[in-house]
Design goal:
The protein is an all-alpha fold. The chain has helices spanning 5-23, 34-43, 49-58, 72-77, 90-126.
């Protein structure tokens, strides 16, 4: 098992350097263009020259901003920007109110459109010049207004349950 360890370490360093190079912005790459570094890492990765060269000469150096801390967590903690919870942030609350008013207006428009369509459907079903439906339905089956389905049959939701 230990005989595979050197190979795995070389492979891990190779993959780390390759991904680090790909994720580094072009403006922060030192020495050579980013494409050249990618080729160097890929071509000389097996003998560790490519990945070590990237880590030493091509990778951007992490400069400590104003001595506030070296790790990203320390820089974030010491950045001086006060974090505000969303429920205490007036800008966030204002944006929620604006979204709510927009949503309410949209809902009112939808409801008005639905009422208009229902009215059009009622007028279309009644037909032009027809008054209110009498005891007979529009199809003449005598099933008007009783909730019967097509042909005078009751639908499954209107049928009383069978006695067991």
């Amino acid at each position: 098992m230990l005989r595979y360890l050197p190979f795995l370490l070389v492979l891990a360093l190779w993959i780390y350097a390759f991904i680090d190079c790909l994720n580094t912005p072009e403006s922060q790459v030192r020495g050579l263009p980013k494409v050249a570094w990618v080729f160097i890492i890929l071509l000389f990765g097996e003998v560790l020259i490519g990945p070590i060269a990237w880590l030493v000469a091509g990778r951007p150096r992490d400069r400590v901003p104003n001595g506030r801390g070296g790790t990203p967590a320390e820089r974030h903690r010491n950045s001086g920007a006060a974090w505000v919870a969303p429920d205490d942030n007036p800008e966030f609350l204002r944006s929620l109110r604006e979204e709510n008013t927009k949503d309410e207006a949209l809902l009112k428009d939808w409801e008005a459109d639905l009422r208009r369509r229902e009215e059009e459907l009622r007028h279309k079903e009644a037909g032009p010049g027809d008054g209110p439906k009498g005891p007979k339905g529009a199809d003449g089956s005598g099933a008007g207004g009783s909730g019967d389905g097509p042909g005078g049959r009751k639908g499954p939701e209107e049928t009383p349950p069978a006695a067991s």
